[in-house]
């Protein structure tokens, strides 16, 4: 069952839209429902609770100079164009929706923040997390982090 994870992810994207302003509450409610439906349909054969990381790339929601198709589809249902979405949402957003965990990053070098975590697969204890203050501030501000240059060593195989 992926309802909690999908609901958490859709609520997060909806909060980003609400924080940006200019979208009515009824439109936001419809957007959230449409996004949840699109995610459920998209993930249904790519959800592996016994191996939570399997299929993670497929379930990743991404805005990076291109609009994620699931967000684009839900926005289209309420009449928001991709151009308008790019104005309202962070230009760099990655949202990971995995069994037992939903996390996000704003900006390519931003902190990864956990929105939902259930550390015990099959356990009853689930908790919503509002992560560190820096994470809250990042989405409230809705900006990309300034880019930093790193010296990286890469390993090729």
Automatic annotation (TrEMBL):
GO terms for cellular component: cytoplasm; nucleus. GO terms for biological process: negative regulation of cell population proliferation. InterPro entries: Anti_prolifrtn, BTG, BTG-like_sf. Residues 89-108 form the Anti-proliferative protein domain. SMART domains: btg1. Signal peptide: none annotated. It comes from the Eukaryota. PROSITE patterns: BTG_2 (PS01203). Pfam families: BTG. Coiled coil: none annotated. Belongs to the BTG family. This is BTG1 protein.
């Amino acid at each position: 069952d992926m309802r909690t994870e999908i609901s958490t992810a859709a609520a997060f994207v909806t909060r980003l839209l609400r924080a940006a302003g200019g979208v009515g509450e009824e439109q936001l409610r419809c957007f959230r429902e449409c996004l949840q439906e699109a995610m459920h349909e998209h993930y249904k054969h790519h959800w592996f609770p016994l191996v939570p990381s399997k299929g993670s790339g497929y379930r990743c929601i991404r805005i990076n100079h291109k609009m994620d198709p699931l967000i684009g589809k839900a926005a289209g249902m309420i009449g928001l164009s991709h151009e308008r979405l790019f104005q309202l949402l962070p230009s760099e957003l990655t949202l990971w929706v995995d069994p037992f965990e939903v996390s996000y990053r704003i900006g390519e070098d931003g902190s990864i923040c956990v929105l939902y975590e259930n550390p015990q697969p099959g356990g009853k204890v689930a908790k919503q997390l509002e992560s560190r203050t820096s994470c809250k501030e990042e989405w409230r501000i809705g900006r990309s982090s300034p880019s930093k240059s790193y010296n990286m060593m890469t390993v090729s195989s």
